[in-house]
Amino acid sequence: MNETVTATASDVSETDPILRTEGVTKKFGTLTAIDDVSIEIPADEITSIIGPNGAGKTTLFNLFTGKHEPTGGRIEFRGESIGGLAPHEIVDRGVVRSFQITNFFGELTALENVRIATQAHYSGFGPGDFARHHASLEEPIADAYEILERVHLEDAARTTAANLSYGQRRHLEIGIALAARPELLLMDEPTAGMSPEETHEVVDLVRAIADDVTLVLIEHDTDIVMELSDQIAVLNEGELLSWGAPAEIQADERVQRAYLGGGGRE
Amino acid sequence: MKSVVELFGRSQSSQTGDQLLSSRGRLAVLVAVGALALFAPIADAYEPFWLNMLVRMMIFALLALSLDFVFGYAGLLSFGHAAMFGAGGYAAAMLISEVTANALVVLPAAMVVGAVVAGIIGWFSVRARGIYFAMLTLAFAQLFYVMAFTDLPATILGVESFTGGDNGLYGIQRYALFGVDFTPTLVYFYLTLAAVALSFVALLRLSNSPFGRVLQGIRENEERVQFLGYDVRRYKVLGFALSGAFAGLAGGLYVPFQSVSHPGLLHWMISGELVVMLLLGGLGTLWGPMLGAALVVFLEEQLAGFASWEIVLGGIFVVVVIFAPRGLAGAIISVRDDPTNVATNAKRAIRNYIDKVRR
């Protein structure tokens, strides 16, 4: 089944894939969370991963970003194997994720949250990194302001993250991920739990980001998925069920049965 | 998963914003150092016992400071800081009796030894998190304790005595530097005061450095820091080693002062007492734990004649944890922010506690 699915994928995109998996598998004890998934994520496009709850979408992200080590198979980023590398090594190569549950430093300001991320590109373990005051590093702060502007939080720079509105938090979450300078950004449900208006803002933001970053989204909202995606991968019970352009996925009967038609969204 | 620091009540370091110590705080530190410097000759003239106690208070304040840097600030609960304290102490004892009593040689050496021991313990322990990390540090520290107690290094090196076994190394003289003899307690007091004050400034600076900010990020949200591209383990090991350097310095000051280095310095009781000092003082403020240490040494000293002084300490500990969960530092901060509301706050704390018990 996987062979046919991969063949469809190569029809969709002519560019070289930025991320490629080959028979990737992840088992937790006796549970197979990801079962022999082979997928190619084309560069400079938006790919969405959809599927019912428990289909393995987040597990797949965890494998891409080094949180879990694959039980079998191969994961390549720009032709280099990254399966089993530590998370920070994968981030160094340009694969960054944003989190489903807003995951930041609640007691720090929005600016500080982003600055910790931008600082990674300027400081390491040199003498200055121990002796200087953190506020004297000007470039990371300038970068952080730039990113806050990109995610429309420039007015909330000095607000403690825990005091931001829900929508603002999601923007901050995306900002922190951008600060890690991704080439490939994996976004886990960027619009979860948002009002229609907030959702609209995030969709615009995602479009803007996609101009210079390859995006992979996990998204439950099928309207958003159809609107944004260049490709859609459908996961079901850890297997890659289908893979193609939005119109193909909508027409795919197996997908209809497993997901789209089967009682709608959860 | 809740972090260990959260379970013990939150640290306060980030509440003060960009600076760990405000300008008012700096003034308070200067006043404290000045008052100590002035008080010492008076104590020396009238009641040398007080001076002796002050020196020990300051040394333990330094040890508590070093632990707060990793526990309160970086969220790494070490139950093994006695190992670095003792290692620094033994290093100082051996150097003084075999090589030189020059403080500028021996004290930095004690720091290096403390950092190396902490680096070893840290490298193995940061693989675990939370309470498992704490237990690993405890186990490693006890390993060092047993090594000192049984004089294992002597057996390995094939020499007669290295750590002096359960007797330890005694008759250690105090430092000398630039022709100044530090043997009189008053002179030793000033050496200690200078070392503790410099360490405080250094650790404060380190806490506010880019490195310190990453450590703080790790305390708040380790996973997130990892996914920003930071090698979390490396930061933890380095932070732990830096903390160990200052614990080693405390040992290097303590041993010549007491003229003896013994395995008890490495015992887990000291590590445990240190955690009590931190919680009494207020995690993550750096200065709070120093006050906590001074309080514990003071009580120990004053109640030594009373057979079970630990009961008193335990009682105070319980009261502080219930009514001032952020320790002495938290209480001082809340009084500073709103001096008029002390009674209301106390009532509210008692009511909250009673509500908690009822539930």
TrEMBL record, chain A:
Pfam families: ABC_tran (PF00005), BCA_ABC_TP_C (PF12399). The keyword Nucleotide-binding applies. GO terms for biological process: amino acid transport. InterPro entries: AAA+_ATPase, ABC_AA/LPS_Transport, ABC_transporter-like_ATP-bd, BCA_ABC_TP_C, P-loop_NTPase. The keyword Electron transport does not apply. Keywords: Amino-acid transport, ATP-binding, Nucleotide-binding, Transport. One of its GO terms (molecular function) is ATP binding. One of its GO terms (cellular component) is plasma membrane. Residues 19-262 form the ABC transporter domain. PANTHER family: ABC TRANSPORTER ATP-BINDING PROTEIN, CONSERVED COMPONENT OF ABC TRANSPORTER FOR NATURAL AMINO ACIDS-RELATED. Belongs to the ABC transporter superfamily. Probable component of a branched-chain amino-acid transport system. This is Probable branched-chain amino acid transport ATP-binding protein LivG. It comes from Natronococcus jeotgali DSM 18795. The lineage of its organism: Archaea, Methanobacteriati, Methanobacteriota, Stenosarchaea group, Halobacteria.
UniProtKB/TrEMBL annotation, chain B:
The chain crosses the membrane at residues 27-43, 49-67, 74-97, 103-124, 131-150, 187-206, 237-255, 275-299, 311-333. Its main location: membrane. Keywords: Cell membrane, Membrane, Transmembrane, Transmembrane helix. The keyword Transmembrane applies. GO terms for molecular function: branched-chain amino acid transmembrane transporter activity. CDD domains: TM_PBP1_LivM_like. Pfam families: BPD_transp_2. It is a multi-pass membrane protein. It is found in: Cell membrane. This is Inner-membrane translocator.
